[in-house]
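Most newcomers find our protein records easier to grasp once they have seen one. There is nothing in a record beyond a sequence line and a structure line. Getting from the letters to the tokens is the skill we practise here. An example says more than a description, so a record of this kind follows:
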Amino acid sequence: MHLFLRILIPLLTLLSPAYGQKGFNDGQLTEIDDAISQAVTDARTPGAVFRMERNGTVYQKAYGDRMIVPKREVMKEDTIFDAASLTKVIATTSAVMKLVEAGKLDLEAPLSRYLPEFTGAGKEAITLRQLLTHNSGLRAGLSPDGNWTGKEGALQLACAETLPAPPGKSYRYSDINFILLGLLIERVSGEALDAFCKREIFQPLKMKDSGFRSLDPGDTTRIAPTTLMKDSKPLRGIVHDPTARRMGGVAGHAGLFTTAADLGRFARMMLNGGELDGVRVFKAETVKAMTSVQSPPGLPRRGFGWDIDSPYAGPRGEIFPVGSYGHTGWTGTRIWIDPFSKTSTIFLSNRNHPDENGGVIALQHELGTLAARAVEGFNFSKVPGALPKDPANRRPAERRSKDGPVLNGIDVLKRDSFRQLRGRRIGLITNHTGIDRERNATIDLLHAAPGVKVVALFSPEHGIRGDQDHEKIGDTTDEKTGLPVHSLYGERRTPVADQLKGIDTLVFDIQDIGCRFYTYISTMTNCLEAAGKAKVRFVVLDRMNPIGPLVEGPVLTAERSFVAAHEIPLRHGMTAGELARLINSERKFGTDLGVIRCEGGSPLRWFDATGLPWRDPSPNMRSLTAATLYPGVGLLEFCKLSVGRGTGTPFELLGAPYVDDLKLAAELNRNAIPGVRFVPVRFTPDASVFKGEECRGVRILLTDRTAFRAADLGLALASTLHRLHPDQLGLDQMAKLLGDPDALAAIQKGKNRNELKKIVERGIPGFVKRREPFLLYARP
């Protein structure tokens, strides 16, 4: 046995990749691991597989889970993913170029030469080149309306399209381009797209797990599922893209399923000039043509199919040279290939499982930068043959506002060496959410800042470290700095004069979540008023609103309280700094107010698009999904109902022992509330309402956060539960959080959805007008 081990261990050592000594920096690989692991922790994706290869050295690793609903499955390296738009380059572009090599297609010819029905409205002038480079002038996608099905239905719709722009004059990334190319391949080759790609591409490259899947998925054991459907089951082995599904699962723009290892083989073939393991798939000049700039001068630079330097080339990162190429997919997939350093990077995730709430755009950009840093022995500062960066290339506004890095107020203050607070004696109102982009606590940063004197700390609900979920929190001392901590969630909710002695500036730095009854804004309001009375300056270190700029009613018309600090809507769509300006003016506090604004990208967008680290704002606010649902679910928190506190997913669960879970789920799903679905569940909270009792109710699945409206959810929950359980629910207890007696009365009277919506939204136009002078950031 000992002899066997002496032989086996060295053999295993030889077989195991030693990344650092073979061309990858171990420290940078660890940073890649940390970045992806953090994305999993922050619920930006349930899991992922990352692969990086250079000159025979491979680094590949799986992270998180490949499925979390209806049960958890650990992510594995051989997981098969819905590649989404990677289909465009791995399958469709490759198939087109095979037909070009065979002399069956001419890229300069109009599509109408091969599909004669594709004419009218100037479409007959669109060439294959323009389709491949997204310069056709066609719209982004086919209309989802109507009952069309199949490839013939898709072709008829495409042929009926008009052109928003003339061919060759503008850039618009378009699924229609590649839907048409997929149909073209089938028409010219005489084969189905999936069969052609299998024979010409996947089999020669031994991409054994790659291919299209019909709507009968077969064995799905290794497949990462995507979004939950109306039957509360996730799509698994069936393409996520709805247009591709209507076309039978095989389409030119989406439908490919693949693995990281298979994409690694494809990338190796591309880097080898079209050949792999002695098998030539493309001529070298074909690979060169695909990956060289083919778009017209003045338009974003793309090859045939492949992205080089378009607005969507974020996965290149900051270091890989322009002239490297790649593509992304809606489901959270990307491939990027650098022919200069001979490096390929692949990231596959199912970020839209179990809903569309995940987001990896910022992560993909970060991974591009980290991957280049991991490459050893190559000088990226001077790359012969690389293209110059195009300073005129900018992302479209809707992309730019989502993808730019955000600097919160503390990041701006730190960047400016704290000059805005120098010479000040500060009382800092903060908690554990007061951190910079590197997770350094604002307490520690200001305590160590030159010329800044922190005199005392003030803590809101949940305490200075955010770990207390009860009332009457007492005063303490901060262990690290020795500073006194005055609780503003104990015997008092407002600083008193004695606590402000020796302080000339109150600084507020707490992460709000954008909901009226989340009490951090109430603490800010009380402190803002106290500062005015004490003639103390008040400075807000502004932070982004994690659930975006959307405004939803009702606007508070009831009496103010600690869960209703001011006459603002349920979901106000403002930052803390903007709210402070509004409240200071409307309440006539007269406080000397300053706001250190957010900089960089817009602070009014989904949190996961910012690249900022997530920190649970309070013990039960554990994810962006919870924060998104909270303004709706939280409305019922004072009723005799569990909203999931004491479970692993607060605000995603709702129920009570008296509820019929099957009936409630059916009733709520019948409402067809945009962006959410309901699954009947039973759960037992270990804290809060109904502690230790089995509750029957629903799990709320956020399927489309863009379409979702929290107020619609809250009203539907209240109306349905009151109708089913009028004696047990205690709807009257909703009054304080709803803040609108008329809306409550309408629910009690059984008003329909449209009537309720009209009542709830009646105050929104006036609020939007009121807040206008106090806004600091542009609205979409």
In short: The two ends are 69 Å apart (CA to CA). The CA atoms of residues 684 and 693 lie 5 Å apart.
